[in-house]
Amino acid sequence: MISKIKSLFQPTKGDSFIGLIDEDGVGKSSFEGECSMTFGLCAYIKNNNPVETKEAVVHRKIPNMDYTIKGLEPLTIVEFRGEQIDYHGQNRINLLSIVKTESSNAVLEEILQKRLEPVEFKSEVFGSFILDRRSHWFETKAQWKNQQIELFLSGTLADIRGLESTAIKLFIESDKWDEKIKKKIASDLLSLKNESWIDENESPLSEKEFLSKITLESIVIHDEEDFEFWFNDGDIFWGHTISVEGNLNGHLDKAGIHG
């Protein structure tokens, strides 16, 4: 009885938060045997103060990678208690307890509705780009040497003119870049294919045969005139994806296979 009475007068740990979970939802990670879960907030209210639209990362240590909290879904509202800290410049809230998932709040619901509206950038060269908030890039379809591919500008609206400029320069010299990048892929990966990825009844490929099988699927443009080219491998590497990173200054990194 005494312990119950004491608990009534003990201060509740942490602050009260209600926040809108961003499009990425919950992520988990493990480092040196310690597991943790995180989710981002695109807006939140702390202790009934005015809404904060500065993004925050909610963090909690968990016992293992199978641990889950039901109801923490992307673009839903959650009530919880936590301790807000500056973690190496990151606006972090250490999660203490969940009060309610799939909650409601008029201010946050208004922000959610605006968040659901498409964000568009109109390019005079490529047409309309639409923001994919989960990937943090703007995407469209584009013609590369008479072939339709996906074109991604990885950045914010503040960056997008510079990213568009890089894309335009690439596309203007598509013949040069197409040849240069394919030669790089053949140089880096042809011997790997013929030495380590040959089926029992398969003959080694010539460079021409190798390049005839791969197909460009997408280009990703980054800041500082960096880019990535992603190719379908035509089953050369049994369904893996081929990528090459480079820069408009002419530098290309070693081609790699993924997946």
Per DSSP E runs of 2 or more residues, the count of β-strands stands at 13
* Approximate shape: globular
Helix content: 10-25%
* Main sheet attributes: strand count, strand direction, barrel closure: 8 strands, mixed
Mean pLDDT: 94
Low-confidence stretches: 1-10
Compute the number of structural domains. Answer: 2
What is the H/E order?
A: HEEEEEHEEEEHHHEEEE
Give the number of helices. Answer: 5
* Rg result: 25 Å
Query: What structural class is derived from the secondary structure elements?
Result: alpha+beta
Question: What key phrases describe this protein's structure?
Answer:
259 residues, OB fold (Dihydrolipoamide Acetyltransferase, E2P), 2 domains, 8-stranded mixed sheet, 5-stranded mixed beta barrel, 13 strands, 24% helix, 42% strand
Structure report:
The protein is of the alpha+beta class. It folds into 2 domains: 2-109, Beta Barrel (OB fold (Dihydrolipoamide Acetyltransferase, E2P)), CATH 2.40.50.140; 120-258, no CATH class. The chain has 5 helices and 13 strands. The protein has helices spanning 2-9, 106-116, 160-172, 174-196, 207-213; strands at residues 15-31, 34-46, 56-62, 77-87, 90-100, 120-123, 127-132, 137-144, 147-153, 215-221, 226-232, 241-247, 256-258. The strands form 2 sheets. Strands 6-7-8-9-10-11-12-13 form an 8-stranded mixed sheet. Strands 1-2-3-5-4 form a 5-stranded mixed beta barrel. The N and C termini lie far apart (59 Å). 18% of the residues are buried. The model is unreliable at 1-10 (pLDDT under 50).
